[in-house]
Amino acid sequence: MSAVIRKIVTVVEETLTEGGKKVSPPTRRAAAIAVIENPFAGQYVEDLAPLMAVGEELGELLATKAAAALGIEGSKVQSYGKAAAVGENGELEHAAAILHPKLGAPVRKILGKGAALIPSSKKRGGMGTSLDIPLGHKDAAFVRSHFDGMEVQINDAPRANEIMVAVAVTDSGRPLPRVGGLTVAEIKGEDGLR
């Protein structure tokens, strides 16, 4: 099964100042969001494998679009996250089927590694529901400067029989991080933690 995509929205956020202080270079993050038809809306289906295949397809598409929106090669992406929202006729398990079993592998392939788990969130909501996409360093989960999130919203999605699926990436951590912890320079990238 291929995704039936109604629209794709790409958002880029660039922070130039934080707390009255200049951020140099600016921190940048991007999210690519697909609004797709939910083939299982309004019905209970035991086998969600078709949605898992859709997740694999969307992982490649959305990671490619998000990295391109930042104008950088995938290997230059520092952190990532994923999220989905089902419309009112969908189940949270529909979002989970897209996000978890197969979406990660193509994202990691596009980004040239990704030893850490991809942070995720899922929810149900109507049109205009916001997605809070959690972000974490792609190779080391303990890098505190990259604990972050990106909020995105599409005014006409998800409709009752749709799912919004997003992948977000960054070229840096939070603006002006100063809460300590493992630094980017200290990453080993072997176990996904440090």
Summarize the structure.
This protein is α+β, with helices and mostly antiparallel strands and 194 residues long. The protein is built from three helices and seven strands, in the order ββαβααββββ.
Explain this structure.
This protein is α+β, with helices and mostly antiparallel strands and 194 residues long. The protein has helices at residues 49-70, 92-99, 104-111; strands spanning 5-18, 21-37, 79-86, 120-124, 130-137, 148-153, 162-170. The protein has one domain (5-186): 60s Ribosomal Protein L30, Chain: A (2-Layer Sandwich).
Name the features.
seven-stranded mixed beta sheet; 7 strands; alpha+beta; 60s Ribosomal Protein L30, Chain: A; 194 residues
Give the H and E element order.
EEHEHHEEEE
Query: Which fold does the CATH topology refer to?
Result: 60s Ribosomal Protein L30, Chain: A
Number of strands: 7
Instruction: Indicate the radius of gyration in whole angstroms.
Output: 17 Å
**Shape field:** globular
Instruction: Work out the count of structural domains.
Output: 1
Report the sheet with the most strands, covering strand number, pairing sense and barrel closure.
7 strands, mixed
User: How many helical elements?
Assistant: 3
Q: Are there runs of 5+ residues with pLDDT below 50, and where?
A: none
**Termini gap:** 37 Å
Instruction: Tell me the name of the CATH class.
Output: Alpha Beta
